[in-house]
Amino acid sequence: MLHANAKDPLILVEHARADQFDTSGLEAEIKIARATLNAASQALANLGEKGTNAALAMG
């Protein structure tokens, strides 16, 4: 059974599986969201590294 207070999408997926709902669409959306967040995180890390390198180069 889905719980109204469950905020984590993975918890919702697990509850949905238990109730035998079709979760394939939700699982795909979660995978896309994770990939997007990972890409954004990597882009920010790269940007931070470039900024640090530029600051070090300026002395």
Automatic annotation (TrEMBL):
<protein>
    <submittedName>
        <fullName>Uncharacterized protein</fullName>
    </submittedName>
</protein>
